[in-house]
Amino acid sequence: MAGRNLKGTKRVVVKVGSSSITGTGGEPDAGRLAGLAGQVAALKGNGTEVLLVSSGAVAAGVGRLGLAARPSTIPEKQACAAVGQGIIMQVYEKLFSGHGLIAGQVLLTRGDLADRGRFLNARNTLNTLLHLGVVPVINENDTVAVEEINFGDNDFLSALVAGLVDADLLCLLTDIDGFYTADPRVDAGARLIPTVAAITPELESSAGGPGTTRGSGGMASKLAAARVAVQCGTAVVVAHSRERDVLPRILAGEELGTFFRPGATRLEHRKRWIAHGAPAAGRVEVDGGAVRALVRGGKSLLPSGVLGVEGCFEAGTTVGIFGADGREVARGIVNFNSRELTMIKGRQTGEIEGLLGHKDYDEVVHRNNMVLMTRVPGG
Questions:
Q1: Which three-class secondary structure state does DSSP give residue 119?
Q2: In angstroms, rounded to a whole number, what is the distance separating the alpha carbons of residues 28 and 40?
Q3: CATH 2.30.130.10 spans which residues of the chain?
Q4: For a tag on the chain, would you pick the N or C end, based on fewer CB atoms within 10 A?
Q5: pLDDT tens digits, 197-231
C-alpha cells in the first residue's frame, strides 16, 4: 500500500471516541451512530472486513444516570460503564441489523492481551467472528478493569486490536481534522500534517493532553496508538468523525486527515505480543555500546552492557531496555530475575556462574526474544 492507495485494504479497524457518538448529555447520538453504521455497511458491501472499537459506555452511563459530569473515581466510572455498555450495544445491534449485519460484543482488558494464552484466544475469537461475517464491536471491559479505564479512550486498545488481527488500516475517528503542528483550538497558526513518515520527538512534543470532557483521549494517545500500529505494519489515518462518508472516502484514497505510513515489515505475532501485549515488569538501563550492539548489530543483550536495574521482576517476564538518555531502545523477555541481574550487571558472561552459583544463560535478553522500539541516528 504505497502512498495513500488504500483501495486494496481487506481488513480495517475503526475506532470512534465518546465525543464522536454521544450527545452533550452523554446519550448515544442516533444520527451519528446511524451514519457510522451505514459507512461500515458500505465497506462490508465492498468486501472489506471491519472491526469497530467503540468508546461511549461511560458517557452513556453518565447520561442514563442523570449525572452532572463524568465521574472522577474508578468505582463511579465502572458503575457508569455497567449501565452504559448495554445501551451502546443495543443501539449498534439495532442499526447494524437494519443493514443485514450482525454485531458481536467483545470486551477486553489489558490482562487479556498481557497473558500469551489469552492473547491468542482473543485473536482466534476475533478472526472467527470475521469469518462468520460478524462486525465485532470492541470496548474495554471498563466494569472490571482498573488501569484500563484511563487507557486513552480506547486509542491504544484499537492499535493492539489492529496488530492482533493483521489489519491493513486503523482509522482513528475523532473530533478534530487530523494531527496538527499544534492544538488548532488554541493556536491559530497550527497546520494540519497530511502525512507522517516517521514519528519523531518533535512530533511527540506537538501532541497535546486529553481531549473533551466526555472522552479521555487526545492527540498524545492517538500518536502512541499510531506508533504501535505502524510498527506492526498497519497504516493509520486520524480523521474527523463528522466528515461526510469519511470511511469510504479514506479507503478510496482521498487525502482526509493525517496518514501515518506503516512500517516496511510486519512484526511477527510473538514479537507484537512482546512489544505491546504485556506491560514491562521492570526497567534495564544499558550503556551506549549495548545500544549500538542491539540496534545496529542485531545482537543480544549481555550483562556487561547493563548499567542499572529498576523494579522487581522474575525471569521470563517482559522488561524495557533503556539507554542512558532515558529513551526505550528495546523490549524483551529477560532470562534473569531482578535480584540476579543486579548481581551480574556490568560483568562478563564468564563470571555469571561464580556470582550466582549457576549459569543457565549467557544473555540477559536473547535477540530472538527482543523487539527494537527505537532507532539510533545513523543506525
A1: helix
A2: 18
A3: 280-372
A4: C
A5: 888 877 877 765 444 433 344 788 889 899 989 98
